[in-house]
Amino acid sequence: MIDLRSDVMTLPTEGMLRAMTSAPLGDEQVREDPTVLALEDELTGLLGQEAALFVPSATMANQIALLCQVRRGQEIVGERNSHMFRYEAGGPAFLAGAVVTGLPGEAGVFTGDQVREIAQVRDSEHRPRTALAVVEDTHNVSGGRAWPLAALDDLHDTCDELGLAVHIDGARLFNAAVALDVPPDRITARARTVAVCFSKGLGCPAGAALVGRSDALAPARRVRQMLGGSLRQAGVLAGAARYALQHNVARLADDHANARVLATLLAEGGLPIDPAGVDTNFVFLDLASLGLDREDARDRLRSHGVLWSNAHHPTVLRAVTHLGHSEADLRTAAARTVEALSKEP
Ligand SMILES: Cc1ncc(COP(=O)(O)O)c(C=O)c1O
């Protein structure tokens, strides 16, 4: 079976497991885990920031970012299908008490002008004050699209002008950096906070971090404690993350190339896919023009030995490449997919 459902399915390699078992450990709650401290230090340098906090998941990093920067009743703006808005169980409303305003985006990208049009940056007796703009890079629901740097700069220019902070949900930040061929701090240095994740394309079993300006992160350790996210000998996980930063970032280019191989072969096989829409490691296949029911399509794919997952849009299937796949796997998966979806049931 070739499993293309998600890059969260990666398993730690032997090298990573060795890094985990040999990592020096201590009690992280009292800042005595040397591996976590080293990881946090590396991350601030890598992302052009001042402070970092290791957390169990990217969802927690995002929610801590809100709890640190948004007061109850304040507004956050971002692309309307952002993971924070759609897939974090209503956390922004439940935890931070935020008013969430979702903007229509193009490939996950919204503009400074869209923010300017709706942002309330002065106190008002009626309107919620806008506290934060949220950028998701790469953007999951749009198909792993990377924000073009010019669009990011435009958003920052507007937010600087309006006095608005920017949070980047960089669960797949390193995919974006590799796709754009820039160092990660070119994407993150102007943000006030950034969430990064180690358990997706970077291949770790768990772990994420919130990175940002020192003043933004000042309450972050306390908030993490409140959410139950403070770990003890967390160096076991931070050791995996440090290994991943060293060994698994540049190789994301292979995942992107494999996604393009898959998309190209599917297009050549007559399926409705535009390989030009593949920026990183996601491939979306819209079944609408094939007249296929999505669950039926997934069953057919499974019986041909390939697993796709459901994308956000109801007629779309998603494949995600990662370090567990070789190019040969993607070639086989493409042939099986064409075979499964082309023939009459
Ligand atoms: C863009 C984005 N942000 C945040 C997350 C949350 O990551 P986790 O499930 O590891 O908390 C995901 C997970 O898929 C994601 O795609």
What spatial form do the alpha-carbon principal axes imply?
A: globular
How far is it from the N-terminal to the C-terminal residue, by CA? 20 Å
Helix-strand string:
EHHEHEHHEHEHEHHEEHHHHEHEEEH
Work out the number of β strands: 12
Major sheet characteristics: 7 strands, mixed
CATH architecture of the largest domain: 3-Layer(aba) Sandwich
- CATH homologous superfamily caption of the largest domain: Type I PLP-dependent aspartate aminotransferase-like (Major domain)
Bound molecules: pyridoxal-5'-phosphate
Mean pLDDT: 97
Protein name: Threonine aldolase
Organism: Actinomadura coerulea
Family: Belongs to the threonine aldolase family.
Keywords: Lyase, Pyridoxal phosphate
What would you note in describing this structure?
- Residues 3-287 form the Aromatic amino acid beta-eliminating lyase/threonine aldolase domain.
- Its EC number is 4.1.2.5.
- It comes from Actinomadura coerulea.
- The chain has 15 helices and twelve strands.
- Strand 5 (130-136), helix 7 (149-162) and strand 6 form a beta-alpha-beta unit.
- With 345 residues, it is an alpha/beta fold.
- It is globular.
- The protein is 42% helix and 16% strand.
- Helix 1 (14-21) packs across helix 12 (235-247), helix 6 (112-118) runs parallel beside helix 7 and helix 14 (294-303) packs across helix 15 (327-342).
- The mean pLDDT is 97.
- The structure holds pyridoxal-5'-phosphate.
- The site of pyridoxal-5'-phosphate (PLP) has 11 residues, from helix 3.
